[in-house]
Amino acid sequence: MAAQMQTRTAAPETAHLDCIHCGLCLSACPTYLQLGMEADSPRGRIYLIQAMKEGHVSAASLNFQQHMLLCLECRACETACPSGVRFSSMMDEARIEMRSRRQLSIFGRLAHWIVYRKVFPSRKIMHLGFRALRLYQRSGLQRLVRASGILRLLPSSIARMEALLPVIPPSPKLGLPEAPSPGSLRKALLFRGCIMPELFGPVHQATVRVLQRNGISIGLPVGQVCCGALHLHDGDRDAARQLARQNIAAFERNREAVIVVNAAGCGAMLKEYGELLADDPVFAQRALDFSRRVRDVCEYLDSIPIHRMMERVDVKVAYDDPCHLLHAQGIKSAPRNLLRTIPGLQLVELRDADHCCGSAGIYNILQPEMSARILEGKIANIIRSGAEVIASGNPGCILQIQAGLDARNLPIQAVHPIELLDRAYRLKFSEYLKSAKS
Fold first, then answer.
1. pTM for this one?
2. Architecture of domain 316-426
3. Of 176, 350, 354, 349, which Cα lies nearest the Cα of 264?
4. Would you list the domain boundaries of the chain?
5. What pLDDT digit, counting tens, does each position of 92-139 carry?
6. Residue 7, pLDDT score
7. Strand 186-190 and strand 258-261: pairing?
């Protein structure tokens, strides 16, 4: 896998020349497996993108856009490709061109500008929005709205987002300084993200506890913002670049610390800032330096000796590979290795664990029918595994899988691997503290 990752260097404008049309990507592509259409395979999309560049197909064509937008950008085709074709870069270029040709209403342009340019980049606005949603849930208004059927009168995308909304936890109080302790042997900076602190605060808290349990001093830099992945995949590369510059500036005050991230989609984006800002005379080298420091939390913990004093966690767990951890970052064994260190935990194999669950950022909102078809296979495999818990290292995957499990009234919980490790540590750690004081 690591060797494969090193070959993915072709520039977007020449990547199509590396495609030898062997078809090995077909069996890895979720949309091709569902539809069996060449135009909805990586190879077919490469043909269409090249036709667009040569002027034979318009990026404004509804047919062209349909095939492009059905792509989940899961990057499974990149893992399967023997030639190292950077399909994701080609797709980003295609969506940038599509965005430039997109015709939105005044309301559509305003809504898009508010969400992508104001809400996601602003931690304060994001926090206020999720506080309102938490009040919506806790006040009983959510039950009333769902029972009344009023959601059917709203745009379908809003209704789908409301259906996917998990119980929103209180915002976490991490209590971290901006920088790690100077005298620490191991130093880390936590990438907070935009959605993670609001929907997955407990995962952040578990991450901090596990890192600290293993002697790692953690800092939480101020000034960090959204990673920019959703902006880039929507074709707004300028906004993604601006967010990248802000994050680089925030994290380079402590250059000796690794940057730890617990969301696979964010991690993949952060690791590719060097590519995103390659033409920026001020940030090109700074972006490369930044990306080289980024580590997924499981990747980082698996690279160091961790404490083995843990409580038993007697549960049967299946691990599902997030696409942007496996295919974009090449990380497969680290989460499994960590789960195997937990006493009592039985790790069972999940069929097609490397296949996409259908979440793909906001794909499950924009392409609900295809997303549901892909999720159906994932849920069937989870049931077949006999697992009581499904672990995955990306928030979108956890939300998508949990929604699928809940829709079938299955008593299976979707969690982040770090939460299971945290659970194993906590009782033993409290015992250790008591003995240390006595």
1. 0.89
2. 3-Layer(aba) Sandwich (3.40)
3. 354
4. 2-101, 108-164, 186-302, 316-426
5. 999 999 988 876 666 666 666 676 677 777 778 888 888 898 999 999
6. 36
7. parallel
